[in-house]
Amino acid sequence: MGQAQSKRISDDEIACITLWRFSRGDSTGQHRHGFDITVVPVTGGTFDVTSPEGQVTHMVQQRGRSYSRSAGVAHEVTSTTDYEAVFLEIELKHP
Hints:
The protein is an all-beta fold. It has no helices and nine strands.
């Protein structure tokens, strides 16, 4: 298992946009989101999402079909995709 690669694309007072790239088995590590996020899958792919308590949920991303999560969500994201999986993560900075 490797570390997923992240590249900060933009970071200003409104939003932080990060490009994520995963090879099969790559992971983000456990983390908690401090802001509401929107994820935009570039390639689509499959992932295991593990809660801090160890509960694993299998997730399928569809290319171009965005979804959102509220601030405070905590998890680790691990790719189970056989090809490079890529998505944009947009953190919305607001009070």
